[in-house]
Amino acid sequence: PTGATGATGADGTNGTNGVDGATGATGATGADGANGTNGSDGATGATGADGTNGTNGDVGATGSTGATGADGAVGATGPVGPTGPQGPTGATGATGADGTNGTNGTNGTNGVDGATGATGADGTNGVDGATGATGADGTNGTNGATGAAGADGAAGPTGPQGPEGPTGPTGPAGTNGTDGATGATGADGAATNTGATGATGATGSTGSAGDTGPAGPTGPQGPEGPAGPTGATGAAGTNGTDGAVGAAGPTGADGPTGPTGPEGVGGATGATGSTGQAIFGGGSGTGSLSTTASNFVPAGSFAVQTSSATVAVPIPFGGVVNNLQVRLSGNPGSGKTYTFTVLRNGSSTPLACAVSGNATTTCSDTDTTVWNAGDTISLQSTPSSNPTARTVTWSVSVG
Fold this sequence. Notes:
The protein is an all-beta fold. The protein has strands spanning 278-283, 295-297, 313-314, 319-328, 333-344, 347-357, 362-365, 370-371, 376-384, 392-398.
């Protein structure tokens, strides 16, 4: 805005009136007095007040739905479980027909006949003499060489295939394959389109005009001029500096974010993980183990028996019976031992361990034998060197 006009400079002091002289010709007009010095520029006006904030922009249009994410990569196939044991061999097929007999070998050459014995002279007729002894047999002729073996007869045609043997019992389930690696995470769905930018907020209205700057200071008094006409009016003061433009109104708020694109299709399910393990355990309860004879302890309850048949418990599903853990209520004693063996259907298995001496009370073992659902399980205790009577607890894992 324009600054206020500077104040008019003061008139020069009137010259002293001359002594009245005789009236004469009119004197020449005195020269005009010099113009007074311009007043100083007025001070800069105060900054105008900030303009009113612009109205918020309209809400941006909803962004379009993002593209569907690409399918996740298929997870790697888990390794194949080990092959079950081979079923029993099928029944033997019927015997094929006999092959044709080979041609007979050539007969060996007959041996040379032994020489004929000389005829005995006729005896005198009379009483028949005793029968003469039988003449010795002539020496047997040398046996002829054995004829060459006849060529093998052609193989007889293959007999018809025997009926298929009954299917062998199903081998125990192979150990479950190691878990397949988790399928790769599906690629992220394509980013949704950003909502359209909200319209720019309307420009804030122009700030109100700044206040009028204060009046410039009075210009210094002009030098006293000779008497004459009044000096010209001093020049107007310089316009005050324009007030600052009001600050721009704030940008309109962003439009709302477009809706999230649909979730990408999940990767293929990884291979089924192995079956979890179950824990079977039991013990002798309050009854101590025999120090001179074998005892049998159940799984799932507490007892001490002299026969495995009375404590054998069937397992509900098949798998590897492993991780034997045995704990006595105290050590067996120096030079003494308790040996523990897991029984399967009443028979010993490789899963066994022993607690010996006066420094230990526990033992453990591992095995990889696969059991079937319905197989019975129990624990046998065998003492050696008359150990101290103890109670026992035990456990195994199945899976």
